[in-house]
């Protein structure tokens, strides 16, 4: 029937009107696809019959497609109810489950274990695409026989596997550019994707014997639940009136990831481990359930250089580790079962992949179009290189024509005092000091752990001879943070720990609290480490970063250590018991602590790609600080000593011209006697505000030569100063300390450290100090190093009481020691002379009385002030008839008159102190028979060596060489004896 044009026009208008009135969610067509059950089997031929190696079965797979053509939108959905993967068993025609995903076994409440939704939205929507994936938990069980059968199946079909790998590489090459292009569009906000993931990861079951049917222990790795969602900013962001905090929120697209319920368990296969997996913590847990939040932020305005382009924040609430000998033995057994690839295995695998790629590339014939493209690229690259060379040549200055002042920053612009000030200036942590106008943060990583605790258990044997575990140690680290920034010209790292607590649960006090072996006050970060590196080609290298390439800062706050004798003895036995576990070969493949430290040290080495550091700039600057350390020695019954060390500092800088400055400083040190009945509670005290101050400077060869010529030009008089170039300087000062020597304290300390003496012998063998001293003397005698020495030591004062509760004290003040030197050259002999001036003054011995208030009152001087002066001329290098001679010394010294005043009371006090205190201290060494035997053996060998030297000396016809010539004058001795101190 013919239709009039007018009626057709009316129908089109109604259709267009209906199209405009449609809802955005209106679905025009929907296609459903249902697959009730499907399976995939791998078959192998054994003895002319087929056998199943692997069977994959999926049930109730549903798929739907919804189309909305009028909005250019569609939606694809997929659902799966169950999934089972089975492998071959050692029993004939039997299969064992390897992967199981069903509601009965795993306890999932959802209808489907897998749900995927992919939706393309209309153009007017906020998001171009929406992706939603939900995956329920499923169980993966390791079966040794099934895994080996699968591996052997692929080994027998090596050619097919090689072809499959080649096909996968070819497919990857085709899709790589597309994937990167999509990722680039997402990063540049041209493509907006709303992604939602809710994945309950698998829990992997590893049986000890290779199969659950064999029994034994099992280990469960539960990956927990991962949820991911995106937070995208609006397409048009208003930033005109935004504050700095609002900019932090508005300038970033974020991906929020929440990881929960991740855990590791070890138990017996007969235990109810499925029920324990649902608990937060139990006796089977090695790692209880962990909660973590991860936020990835992408900058929507890359032109804002002050803000990082990428930020990654990781926050973990609590990480707990439960360890015991039984669990470590089980882990060791699992390490034996699992094959850990070595670096050689990984390298061999990489080479095999490259070989497959090369073999595949030989079969590919290049087209003429590809050859033309390669020729164009090569021609363009050569043109760019020539253009760059011509641009650099237009500067008119040759790169080799650089003045000496530009080469050496130290010699031309900065003094030694400036360098020391630089050391102090880099002690401030924080990324604010590492950011400059040209050195901005590109990527920022922050990891925060609220609490990391290690709970150690020890086993005990009960009356029924069943081994049970009880809580023993707890190590708690609170507020751990790690911040890393990748900047334009180098990285920066910060690491800190808020609080450290090591507690012994078996030695609880009267109040029921645990015994804290190591603790901190918690007011500041107990440990803080900061490192940064700025390449020398940074425009702000000299102005902002003070020409310092690498900087390392280590700060330690108030640390308290309670050295409980019984607790540390038990800890020593516990660690020794753990070390005796026969660890497997695979456990030895895990890098140890020394390898990790060696690898971390390699990070400080200069890379080949780094630009060269200008001469005089600082290659590395490190600074270490220890605020205070409190060490308390005690036993189960009594408290012995309390040692305090405050203000330990160390600074060092290394220059590019081989110059080095090292400083060390100790503010105070004290030792207190904690016994109740004593007049001498202060065993060690200090009088000044510093105990030790050290400064060592190693000169650069070019630097001190120019400095010497400058000094010679300014001063024509050569008397009283050096005429030889020195290699550096050494300054050392030691403050006044007072030390009380009591036999009771020595005896208690001897008994205290006796159980740990084998650790000391392990680190410092017998005779090591003597060998080191002999080696040092020999090296000093032969060393040609020329150091300016300036030593100022206020020698310690020793107090010798008679007993703890008797006030009689003998005071030995060793006075003050000063050492200085200068160098001269003998024109006639050519010898370089090191002239050392040594002076020891104010040496006295007095009798005193200690009051009840702890105040020392001097009574009478027994030996008045004594002074010793030595003038040492040491030939650093002298050529004689027999060749080059080292260490020839001439010593000229003088000792002032020695005045001794002795009364009956003084003599009585000296005899009593000797009998009740000093003699007991000296007899302690004689009581150690082992040390005496070793000392006698060493003395015997030394005497034998001396006899051999004398034999060679008398039988040799050559002219002897006098190595040491000493001449000391003694002014005299005056002895005054009194019947009474008042006379």
Characteristic key phrases:
single chain; 983 residues; 36-stranded mixed β-sheet; 20 helices; 38 strands
Describe the structure.
Residues 15-337 form the Chorein N-terminal domain. Keywords: Transport. Belongs to the VPS13 family. The chain has 20 helices and 38 strands. With 983 residues, the protein is of the alpha+beta class. Among the domains are: 26-200; 679-701 and 724-762 and 785-924 and 962-982, no CATH class. The protein has a 36-stranded mixed beta sheet that branches. It has a two-stranded parallel sheet with strand order 36-38.
The count of β-strands is 38
Mean pLDDT: 80
Distance between the termini: 154 Å
Helix content: 25-40%
Low-confidence stretches: 360-365, 381-413, 703-720, 929-933
Largest sheet: 36 strands, mixed
- Assign the structural class, choosing from mainly alpha, mainly beta, alpha/beta, alpha+beta, or little secondary structure: alpha+beta
Percent range for β-strand residues: 35-45%
State the shape. elongated
Helix count equals 20
Provide the gyration radius in Å. Answer: 40 Å
């Amino acid at each position: 029937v013919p239709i009039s044009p007018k009626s057709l026009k009316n129908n089109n208008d109604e259709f267009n009107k209906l199209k405009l009135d449609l809802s955005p969610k209106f679905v025009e067509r929907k296609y459903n696809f249902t697959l009730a059950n499907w399976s995939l089997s791998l078959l192998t031929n054994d003895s002319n019959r087929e056998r199943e190696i692997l069977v994959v079965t999926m049930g109730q797979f549903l798929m739907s497609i919804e189309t909305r053509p009028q909005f250019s939108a569609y939606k694809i959905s997929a659902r799966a109810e169950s999934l089972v993967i089975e492998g071959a068993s050692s029993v004939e025609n039997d299969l064992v489950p390897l992967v199981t995903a069903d509601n009965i076994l795993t306890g999932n409440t959802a209808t489907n274990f897998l749900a995927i939704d992919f939706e393309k939205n209309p153009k007017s929507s906020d998001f171009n695409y929406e992706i939603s994936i939900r995956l329920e938990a499923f169980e993966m069980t390791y079966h040794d026989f099934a895994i080996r059968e699968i591996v052997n199946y692929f080994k027998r079909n090596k050619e097919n596997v090689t072809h499959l790998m080649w096909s996968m590489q070819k497919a990857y090459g085709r899709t790589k550019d597309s994937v990167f292009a999509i990722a680039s569009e997402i990063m540049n906000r041209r493509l907006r994707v709303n992604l939602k993931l809710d994945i309950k990861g698998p829990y992997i079951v590893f049986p000890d014997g290779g199969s659950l049917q064999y029994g034994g222990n099992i280990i469960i790795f539960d990956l927990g639940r991962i949820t991911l969602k995106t937070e995208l900013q609006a397409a048009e962001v208003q930033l005109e009136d935004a504050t700095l905090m609002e900019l932090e929120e508005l300038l970033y697209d974020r991906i929020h990831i929440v990881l929960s319920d991740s855990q590791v368990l070890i138990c017996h296969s007969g235990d109810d481990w499925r029920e324990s997996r649902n608990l937060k913590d139990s006796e089977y847990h090695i790692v209880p359930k962990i909660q973590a939040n991860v936020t990835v932020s992408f900058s929507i305005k890359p032109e804002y250089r002050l803000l990082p382009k990428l930020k990654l924040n990781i926050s973990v609430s609590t990480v707990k580790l439960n360890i015991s000998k039984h669990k470590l033995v089980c882990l060791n057994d699992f390490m034996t079962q699992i094959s850990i690839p070595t670096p050689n295995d990984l390298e061999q695998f990489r080479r095999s992949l490259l070989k497959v790629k090369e073999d595949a590339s030989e079969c590919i014939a290049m087209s003429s179009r590809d050859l033309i493209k390669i020729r164009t690229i090569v021609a363009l690259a050569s043109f760019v290189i020539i253009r760059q060379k011509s641009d650099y040549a237009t500067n008119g200055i040759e790169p080799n024509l650089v003045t000496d002042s530009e080469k050496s920053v130290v010699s031309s612009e900065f003094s030694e005092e400036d360098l020391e000030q630089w050391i102090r200036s880099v002690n401030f942590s924080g990324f604010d000091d590492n950011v400059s106008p040209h050195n901005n943060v590109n990527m920022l990583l922050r990891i925060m752990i609220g609490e990391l605790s290690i709970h150690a258990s020890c086993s005990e044997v009960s009356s029924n001879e069943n081994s049970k575990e009880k809580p023993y140690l707890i190590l708690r680290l609170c507020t751990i943070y790690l911040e890393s920034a990748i900047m334009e010209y180098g990285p920066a790292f910060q690491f800190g720990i808020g609080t450290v607590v090591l507690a012994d649960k078996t030695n609880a006090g009267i109040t029921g609290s645990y015994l804290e072996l190591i603790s901190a006050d918690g007011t500041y970060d107990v440990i803080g480490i900061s490192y940064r590196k700025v390449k020398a080609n940074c425009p702000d290298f000299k102005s902002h970063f003070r020409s310092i390439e690498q900087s390392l800062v280590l700060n330690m706050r108030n640390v308290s250590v309670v050295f409980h004798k019984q607790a540390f003895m038990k800890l020593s036995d516990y660690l020794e018991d753990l070390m005796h576990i026969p660890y497997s070969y695979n456990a030895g493949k895990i890098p140890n602590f020394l390898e990790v430290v060696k690898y971390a040290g390699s990070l400080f080495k200069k890379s080949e790609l780094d630009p060269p550091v200008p001469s005089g700039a600082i290659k590395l600057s490190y600074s270490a600080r220890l605020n205070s350390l409190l060490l308390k020695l005690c036993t189960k019954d009594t408290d012995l000593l309390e040692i305090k060390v405050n203000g330990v500092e160390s600074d060092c800088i290394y220059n590019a011209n081989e110059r080095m400055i090292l400083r060390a400083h100790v503010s105070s040190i004290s030792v207190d006697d904690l016994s109740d009945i004593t007049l001498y509670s202060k065993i060690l005290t200090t009088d000044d505000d510093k105990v030790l101050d050290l400064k060592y400077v190693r000169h650069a060869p070019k630097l001190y030569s120019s400095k010497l010529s400058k000094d010679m030009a300014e001063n024509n008089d050569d008397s009283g100063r050096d005429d030889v170039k020195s290699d550096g300087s050494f300054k050392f000062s030691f403050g006044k300390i007072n030390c009380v020597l009591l036999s009771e304290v020595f005896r208690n300390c001897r008994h205290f450290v006796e159980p740990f003496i084998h650790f000391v012998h392990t680190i410092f063998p017998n005779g090591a100090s003597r060998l080191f001293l002999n080696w040092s003397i020999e090296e000093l005698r032969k060393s040609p190093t020329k150091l300016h020495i300036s030593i100022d030591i206020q020698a310690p004062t020793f107090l010798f009481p008679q007993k703890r509760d008797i006030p009689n004290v003998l005071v030995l003040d060793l006075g003050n020691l000063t050492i200085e030197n200068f160098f001269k050259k003998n024109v006639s002999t050519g010898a370089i002379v090191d002239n050392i001036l040594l002076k020891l003054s104010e040496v006295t011995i007095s009798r005193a009385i200690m009051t009840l208030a702890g105040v020392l009152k001097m009574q009478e001087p027994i030996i008045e002030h004594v002074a010793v002066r030595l003038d040492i001329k040491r030939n650093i290098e002298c050529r004689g008839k027999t060749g080059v001679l080292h260490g020839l010394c001439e010593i000229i010294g003088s000792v002032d008159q020695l005045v001794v005043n002795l009364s009956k009371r003084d003599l009585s006090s000296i005899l009593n102190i000797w009998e009740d205190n000093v003699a007991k201290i000296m007899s302690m060494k004689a009581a150690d028979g082992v040390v005496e035997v070793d000392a006698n053996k060493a003395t015997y060998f030394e005497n034998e060596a001396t006899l051999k030297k004398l034999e060679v000396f008398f039988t040799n016809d050559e002219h002897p060489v006098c190595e040491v010539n000493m001449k000391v004058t003694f002014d005299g001795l005056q002895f005054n004896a009194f019947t009474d101190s008042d006379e």
